[in-house]
Amino acid sequence: MKIFIITVVTTGIIASISYLIIYKYIKSKFERTANDPYANDRAPESINSSNSDREAQRTVSEQEIVNLESSIDKKLPEFYKNFLMNYPKDIMLLGAPYNTVSELSLPNTTTRIAELNSLEFVPADILVIGEDGLGNVYYNILSDNNSVIYLFDHEAPKYLNSGQNVIDWYKSWDLKFNNLDEMISYLKESFSE
């Protein structure tokens, strides 16, 4: 019986010590992040790779753009091509460690852009350039030949017909940005709150 009691007590002590060590480790990690005003500016470990890897993630090549245009059967506007080929470094990790702007709001991979434009409700005249994570998409109306970006309001779309199956993309927006710079400023402000 004494051996059983000694074993139970020893196991309890070891478990308590293990718990205490783990607790202190987690607490120290949290305190360093909470007290570090620049913690959110650093890349998470999964993104914090070599410089050449990060550089490759920042821009899209001309050939990738040609391939994208072919795969989605849409001609990208010049302002958007320039943006993709010169993706701003200051927004690359905005939103980390969660979904970053470069993954969600303004993806910088042609694969992601192609996915967004393959949504069945997106007509040929609309170029979807990102999403907000809540079901709304950022888009440009290609036939307008301008750099205006809209945020589609999926909860209250306007329709061109009474059958409510043809969306009026000219009226179904919640936010309107005159250009990508305005949209980026909006995103930066949103993530800083």
For the structure shown, list the relevant keywords:
single chain, 193 residues, alpha+beta, SMI1/KNR4-like, 2 domains, four-stranded antiparallel beta sheet, globular
Summarize the model shown.
With 193 residues, the protein is of the alpha+beta class. The chain has helices at 2-35, 51-58, 62-72, 78-85, 110-117, 180-192, and strands spanning 126-131, 137-141, 149-152, 173-177.
Number of domains: 2
- Report the principal-axis shape: globular
Main β sheet profile: 4 strands, antiparallel
Spell the H/E element sequence: HHHHHEEEEH
CATH C-level class of the largest domain: Alpha Beta
Beta strand count: 4
Order of strands across the biggest sheet? Answer: 1-2-3-4
Overall pLDDT confidence:
74
Low-confidence stretches: 18-56
- Rg calc: 24 Å
In terms of DSSP E residues, the strand content is 5-15%
If classified by CATH, what would the architecture of the largest domain be? 3-Layer(aba) Sandwich
- Stated plainly, the CATH topology of the largest domain is called SMI1/KNR4-like
Terminus-to-terminus distance: 61 Å
Protein structure class:
alpha+beta
Determine the fraction of residues in helical runs and give it as a percent range: 40-55%
Number of helices: 6
Fold and architecture overview:
The chain is an alpha+beta fold. It has two domains: 1-36; 43-192, SMI1/KNR4-like. The chain has helices at residues 2-35, 51-58, 62-72, 78-85, 110-117, 180-192, and strands at 126-131, 137-141, 149-152, 173-177. The chain has a four-stranded antiparallel beta sheet with strand order 1-2-3-4. The radius of gyration is 24 Å and the shape is globular. Mean pLDDT is 74; it is low at 18-56.
